[in-house]
Amino acid sequence: MTSPQTALSDSTLVIIPTFNEIENLPLITKRVREATPEVHILIVDDSSPDGTGELADELSEKDDHLHVIHRKSKDGLLGAYIAGFKWGLERDYQVLCEMDADGSHAPEQLHLLLEEIDKGADLVIGSRYVEGGETVNWPASREYLSRLGNIYISMALGAGLSDMTAGYRAFRRDLLEFIDFDELSDAGYIFQVDLAFRAVKDGFDVREVPITFTEREYGESKLDGSFVKDSLFEVTKWGLEHRTEQAKDAVEDVTPVVKKLVEDTGVTKVPSRLGEATSYVGDLAGEVWKLAKHTVNDMRSGSKR
């Protein structure tokens, strides 16, 4: 189904990194063009030995909405996306999207992401784990690993997002211009978490929409088990740093309040006021804990669908 015309879709670039995707490339580009004919596509090929880059050139010669970048070496998904982001920003695209070449991200659902951008979002994540999202043809072990990993990431960082590792995304250019690409972590596939976490911390509007993630039919996955260890190590480090910053900020905020209480009411009344503050903090911690449990329950319920 063709999506309705949206305010920014005439200036949207869909970035699709490729490495040995010769079977998938014509399929994914055809689906994007049929679902959202107004958007442009950028293929970023890492010198695929199977001829994917040459096929991309042939397709682009027949379609002025399809563009190609050839990179000399395969140095990771982050590098491919950064190359695509920079190419798109230089050409004044207003929305830049990430999409896998293997069909796991349905082009027919791209309009869901773009509609939220039009409503004011700076980053929209196509989520497998919010209500309405799902995975298809994924091995149970891989799905559970992904779900548990995202639960841990959510609790460690407190970002309020259900699927921070997801790679189906739409960015408003203002957010990408704000991000320092050189600072992004390239440990495993953690740059997706890094991008989303930076956006949340810096006050950008980050939203999730439900999507259906379908396991690839052709070719081999580029994902290996090492990304889990590398990614969770990074997340744990960020979580500790973030909590330390929050604690430091809290102490700095509370200190002048305590001093003011001492000056205004006398030392003997401070314990009572501090008791009230302690009670409030305790209540707040309780609400955070309930939210965490609610998130876990939501994830468990989703896994039974």
Commentary on this structure:
Its EC number is 2.4.1.83. Belongs to the glycosyltransferase 2 family. Keywords: Glycosyltransferase, Transferase. It comes from Corynebacterium casei UCMA 3821. The protein is α/β, with parallel strands linked by helices. The protein has helices at 25-35, 52-61, 77-90, 110-118, 140-157, 173-178, 191-201, 226-265, 270-303, and strands at residues 12-18, 40-45, 66-70, 95-98, 123-127, 134-136, 169-172, 206-210, 212-214. The chain has a seven-stranded mixed β-sheet, sandwiched between helices. Strands 6-9 form a two-stranded parallel ribbon. The longest helix has 40 residues, at 226-265.
Report strand %: 5-15%
Strand tally = 9
Looking at the structure, the CATH topology of the largest domain is: Spore Coat Polysaccharide Biosynthesis Protein SpsA, Chain A
The N- and C-terminal alpha carbons lie at a distance of 25 Å
User: Helix count, per DSSP?
Assistant: 9
Work out the radius of gyration. 22 Å
Shape: globular
CATH class of the largest domain: Alpha Beta
Number of domains: 2
* Largest sheet, spatial ordering of strands: 3-2-1-4-7-5-8
Assign the CATH architecture of the largest domain. Alpha-Beta Complex
Kindly name the structural category: alpha/beta
Enzyme class: transferase
GO biological process, one term: glycolipid biosynthetic process
Protein name: dolichyl-phosphate beta-D-mannosyltransferase
Catalytic activity: a di-trans,poly-cis-dolichyl phosphate + GDP-alpha-D-mannose = a di-trans,poly-cis-dolichyl beta-D-mannosyl phosphate + GDP
